[in-house]
C-alpha cells in the first residue's frame, strides 16, 4: 500500500491555515484542517518572519499530534501582489523535420524560454510561473499544446506568459520554514484556483475570475481554455472590516464577525433585514450601541464598489473585455458577503456568480469546513500536488521501543539509584600494614631485681615511719 501526505499552508492577511491530505493508492482524503490568526503578513507577503513562526508552529504541532506524523515539508503559494507579466517567444530548429513533435520537446522548449527570460530579468526578481499561450510550426498556427504534440515540422515555436516577482517575499517564506525546520514547495496558484472553481466551458468561452482575499484582490482572465491575463491590487476584505471598525468604533474582531454575520453589499436589497438593529454591548463600560443593518450595508457597499471598479478596470486593461461569455466568477473570503455577485453584475453588465470549490477525486468528508470560499487556496494546492507521487510532506511516527536489559536478581537496579562506576585498577601496590608487636614476657633477672626493689622499698618506708614517731 502506497501512502503519502500533502501538507498545504495558506499564508493570508486574516488567517494562516494548514491542511493535511492523505493519499493512499491514488485516493486522496483531507484528514486535517485548522486555522490560526495571522500575524506578520500584509498584502499577502511576509514582512515579519518571526511573528509568522508562532501561529504556524502551533498549527504544525497540532497536526502532528492529531495524526501521529512528522511533517518535514509543506506546500505554499507565491505572493499574488506585485506580479509582473511578460510575453516571451521562443523557437528552435528541429534536426528531423519528418519526426513527430513529442511531449518532451514541448517541455524542453518551455525550459529554454524560461532560462532565456531568467538571464534577462533584473536582480532581485525571480520567475513565479509560466503559462503556454500557443505553439506554431510551418503548417500549424497558434495551436494548443494538446494539438501540437504529434505534428511534424522543421521549426517549432512557442508563446508564453511568464509571471515574475520580487525575491524578498519568497526569501521571507524560506526564513519562516527554515526556522521551523521545514522544507517548502512554492507554486503560482492562478491556474490551480481556476481548476478548483471554474468549469471547462467557462474557461473555453471566456471568463474573469476575481479572487477577493483579505489583503489582495486578483483578476485572472481565461479565454479558449488558457490563462491570458493576471493582475492584482492591494486591498480586499480587510479594508471592509477596517471601515466598519473605524466608522462604528468597535474592535476589529467584532467588526469581522458582524461583517460575516449581517454584512451585505447592497442596502437596497435587504428587504425585511434592513429594518433589523444590531445591539452591541460593551462589557467594559456597560454601554450598549445600536447598529442598523442597513447602515452596516452602506459602509460595506461603498468599499465593495471600490473593489469591483478596480477589478473591472483590470478586466478592461487585459484586452479581453469583449470575450466574456462566461461572465464573472467571484471567489475568496471577500465573496462571502451577501449580494456580492449582484453588485458586480450591476456594475459590469455581465453575469456573475460565486465560485465555491468543486474538487473531483478528493474526499473532504472529514473536514467539511475546507469547502468554504476561504479554503479555495488550500484545495487548489492539494489538487495541484495530488498526482505528483514524488511529493510526500510527512511520515508516520515510529514507535520508539527500547530493548529490555537483563538485570541480576541479587543486585536490583532502580530508576532513581545510580551506582558509581568502579575506579580503574592501577599498577602501584599499596604498602602493607606492619604487624603489631606483642609485649615480651620479662626474663628471670628482671623478675629478681623487681622483687628486690620491692623489699628494700618496704624496709625504707618502715624506717621513715619509726623516725617520725621518735620525733613526736
Compose a concise summary of this entry.
The protein has 472 residues and is of the alpha+beta class. It has helices spanning 49-67, 103-120, 145-148, 167-179, 190-197, 200-205, 237-248, 252-262, 293-318, 340-348, 376-385, 444-471; strands spanning 3-11, 15-24, 27-37, 41-42, 45-46, 69-71, 73-77, 84-93, 125-136, 155-166, 183-187, 207-212, 217-223, 226-233, 277-281, 288-292, 328-331, 352-354, 362-363, 394-396. Helices cover 35% and strands 26% of the residues.
Characterization of the model:
The chain is an alpha+beta fold. The chain is 35% helix and 26% strand. It has 12 helices and 20 strands. It has helices spanning 49-67, 103-120, 145-148, 167-179, 190-197, 200-205, 237-248, 252-262, 293-318, 340-348, 376-385, 444-471; strands at 3-11, 15-24, 27-37, 41-42, 45-46, 69-71, 73-77, 84-93, 125-136, 155-166, 183-187, 207-212, 217-223, 226-233, 277-281, 288-292, 328-331, 352-354, 362-363, 394-396. It has a 5-stranded mixed β-sheet with strand order 14-13-12-17-18, with helices on both faces. It has a 4-stranded mixed β-sheet with strand order 1-2-3-19, with helices on both faces. Strands 8-10-9 form a 3-stranded antiparallel β-sheet. Helix 7 (237-248) packs across helix 8 (252-262), helix 7 (237-248) runs antiparallel to helix 9 (293-318) and helix 9 packs across helix 10.
What is the chains' assembly state?
A: single chain
- Give the overall average pLDDT: 85
With helices defined by DSSP (H or I, 4 residues minimum), what is the helix count? Answer: 12
Using DSSP, what is the number of strands? 20
Gyration radius over CA: 43 Å
> Which sequence of strands runs across the widest sheet?
14-13-12-17-18
Q: Low-confidence segments, ≥5 residues, pLDDT <50?
A: 410-431, 434-460
Kindly name the structural category.
alpha+beta
Amino acid at each position: 500500500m502506497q501512502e503519502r501526505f500533502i501538507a498545504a499552508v495558506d499564508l493570508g492577511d486574516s488567517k494562516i491555515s494548514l491542511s493535511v491530505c492523505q493519499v493512499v493508492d491514488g485516493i486522496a482524503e483531507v484528514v486535517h484542517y485548522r486555522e490560526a490568526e495571522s500575524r506578520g503578513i500584509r498584502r499577502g507577503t511576509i514582512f515579519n518572519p518571526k511573528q509568522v513562526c508562532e501561529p504556524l508552529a502551533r498549527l504544525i504541532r497540532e497536526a502532528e499530534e492529531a495524526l501521529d506524523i512528522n511533517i518535514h515539508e509543506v506546500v505554499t503559494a507565491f505572493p499574488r501582489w506585485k506580479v509582473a507579466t511578460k510575453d516571451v517567444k521562443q523557437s528552435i530548429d528541429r534536426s528531423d523535420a519528418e519526426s513527430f513533435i513529442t511531449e518532451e520537446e514541448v517541455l524542453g522548449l518551455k525550459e529554454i524560454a524560461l532560462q532565456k527570460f531568467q538571464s534577462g530579468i533584473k536582480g532581485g526578481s525571480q520567475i513565479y510561473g509560466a503559462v503556454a499561450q500557443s505553439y506554431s510550426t510551418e503548417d500549424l498556427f497558434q495551436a494548443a499544446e494538446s494539438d501540437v504534440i504529434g505534428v511534424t515540422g522543421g521549426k517549432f515555436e512557442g508563446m508564453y506568459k511568464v509571471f515574475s516577482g520580487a525575491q524578498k517575499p519568497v526569501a521571507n517564506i524560506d526564513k519562516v520554514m527554515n526556522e521551523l525546520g521545514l522544507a517548502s514547495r512554492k507554486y503560482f496558484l492562478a491556474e490551480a484556483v481556476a481548476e478548483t472553481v471554474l468549469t471547462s466551458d467557462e474557461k473555453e468561452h471566456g471568463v474573469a475570475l476575481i479572487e477577493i482575499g483579505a489583503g489582495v484582490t486578483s483578476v485572472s482572465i481565461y479565454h479558449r481554455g488558457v490563462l491570458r491575463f493576471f493582475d492584482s491590487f492591494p486591498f480586499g476584505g480587510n479594508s471592509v472590516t477596517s471601515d466598519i471598525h473605524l466608522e462604528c468604533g468597535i474592535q476589529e474582531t467584532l467588526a469581522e464577525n458582524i461583517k460575516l454575520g449581517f454584512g451585505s453589499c447592497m442596502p437596497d436589497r435587504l428587504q425585511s433585514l434592513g429594518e433589523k438593529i444590531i445591539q452591541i454591548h460593551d462589557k467594559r463600560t456597560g454601554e450598549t450601541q445600536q447598529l442598523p443593518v442597513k447602515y452596516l450595508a452602506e459602509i460595506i457597499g461603498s468599499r465593495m464598489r471600490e473593489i469591483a471598479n478596480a477589478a473591472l478596470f483590470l478586466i478592461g486593461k487585459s484586452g479581453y473585455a469583449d470575450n466574456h461569455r462566461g461572465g464573472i466568477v467571484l471567489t475568496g473570503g471577500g465573496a462571502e458577503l451577501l449580494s456580492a455577485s449582484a453588485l458586480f453584475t450591476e456594475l459590469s453588465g455581465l453575469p456573475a456568480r460565486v465560485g465555491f470549490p468543486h474538487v473531483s477525486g478528493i474526499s473532504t468528508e472529514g473536514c467539511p469546513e475546507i469547502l468554504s470560499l476561504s479554503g479555495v487556496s488550500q484545495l487548489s494546492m492539494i489538487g495541484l500536488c495530488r498526482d505528483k507521487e514524488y511529493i510526500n510532506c510527512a511520515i508516520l511516527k515510529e514507535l520508539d521501543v527500547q530493548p529490555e536489559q537483563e538485570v541480576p536478581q541479587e543486585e536490583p537496579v532502580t530508576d532513581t539509584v545510580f551506582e558509581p562506576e568502579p575506579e580503574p585498577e592501577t599498577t602501584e601496590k599499596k604498602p602493607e600494614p606492619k604487624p603489631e608487636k606483642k609485649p615480651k614476657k620479662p626474663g628471670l633477672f628482671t623478675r629478681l631485681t623487681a622483687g628486690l626493689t620491692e623489699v628494700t622499698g618496704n624496709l625504707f618506708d618502715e624506717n621513715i615511719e619509726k623516725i617520725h614517731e621518735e620525733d613526736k
